[in-house]
Prior knowledge:
By secondary structure, this protein is α/β, with parallel strands linked by helices. The protein contains 15 helices and 15 strands. It folds into two domains: 17-73 and 344-446, Aspartate Aminotransferase, domain 1, CATH 3.90.1150.10; 77-342, Type I PLP-dependent aspartate aminotransferase-like (Major domain) (Aspartate Aminotransferase, domain 2), CATH 3.40.640.10. Helices cover 39% and strands 16% of the residues. It has a seven-stranded mixed beta sheet, sandwiched between helices. A four-stranded mixed beta sheet has the order 1-2-3-13. The chain has a four-stranded antiparallel beta sheet with strand order 11-12-15-14. The protein is globular, with a radius of gyration of 22 Å. This is 4-aminobutyrate aminotransferase. GO terms for molecular function: (S)-3-amino-2-methylpropionate transaminase activity; 4-aminobutyrate:2-oxoglutarate transaminase activity; 5-aminovalerate transaminase activity; identical protein binding; pyridoxal phosphate binding.
Amino acid sequence: xxxxxxxxxxxxxxxxxxxxxxxxxxxxxxxxxxxxxxxxxxxxxxxxxxxxxxxxxxxxxxxxxxxxxxxxxxxxxxxxxxxxxxxxxxxxxxxxxxxxxxxxxxxxxxxxxxxxxxxxxxxxxxxxxxxxxxxxxxxxxxxxxxxxxxxxxxxxxxxxxxxxxxxxxxxxxxxxxxxxxxxxxxxxxxxxxxxxxxxxxxxxxxxxxxxxxxxxxxxxxxxxxxxxxxxxxxxxxxxxxxxxxxxxxxxxxxxxxxxxxxxxxxxxxxxxxxxxxxxxxxxxxxxxxxxxxxxxxxxxxxxxxxxxxxxxxxxxxxxxxxxxxxxxxxxxxxxxxxxxxxxxxxxxxxxxxxxxxxxxxxxxxxxxxxxxxxxxxxxxxxxxxxxxxxxxxxxxxxxxxxxxxxxxxxxxxxxxxxxxxxxxxxxxxxxxxxxxxxxxxxxxxxx
Length: 447
């Protein structure tokens, strides 16, 4: 099947008749709890376009929630997957292992921050990798407690729901949750300026000391196995902590025998204009958790970190039937090759410049755009009521729904439901990217 033309084109209303048929079938066959952002069904996708079953071509500013970072159906990935599927689809690495798993671990050990001796273990999903990172940290330290942060999102399994801050839709009605999970205040510059003043909003070290004070008083380092944090929060609202917050937190962890876990599930693999978001502040986490963009759409995740920490669990204490599936490993190697060969780390930085320029000009003309933030191809706008910092979730919902109707895929996020997030594939053309933003600008004016 040929790739869809790289242009936005609507031939029916959204949803079209074929998608409407599938919506009805889904209602009769799929559990109600599995929701959808858009009422369209995909037929094919490539570059910056998703084409639905009715022939509508939509501008993709979501990348399947930061998964198809190098573009859907990237040629090297397609070829690698087909070749591996023709050889074998599964043996279980814990039974009869294969080179692909080892090669992915070697690549992760090479690419992740830090020059020391590292090890990796492969899993299926971000949630699973986070759980295993906590298992590893607890084994290494002999301690139990784990600290996560306000606005955090770490997954939908029981332990990761406990780590996640937002109740609806992720936690509501699903408890009780795993014990020994605690929460500390994050550096959230836009909101800290409102409640804590300019100094707290701009001084990351001061914000970190606030968090450390809570940790010391409520848990104590002697009980704390790990601190886990997203270097740039995802579902929480693409929050970039003030400069100095992450290094100060890491220094405290190192001084107190606490494992520092960076959850780079959404930020990893060139998404933020660096291989990993930790690099922007020069920090080297003890453990780093990856998934999403690792394999361009195939289910794979990993924990990578210092060898002495990663090797703490006993033999056979880590693993899983599908972890490091050979087809997913082939896709991951091809994804990494594509990022390196096509200069996509630099491309993400170019996308940041383009988007922030456009969105910044929109912000100057519209006081409902309270904040423009993010790094690389991970950019967000926080929408507020005119002339205030009060979150406007209703406007955000109306804007995203109208964008979908106009053929632009956008996502929302944020604790208050008022953040519009942009995760374009790095393969998108500048023309498509700007067109998508211009559609949003026109809709926002109409609203």
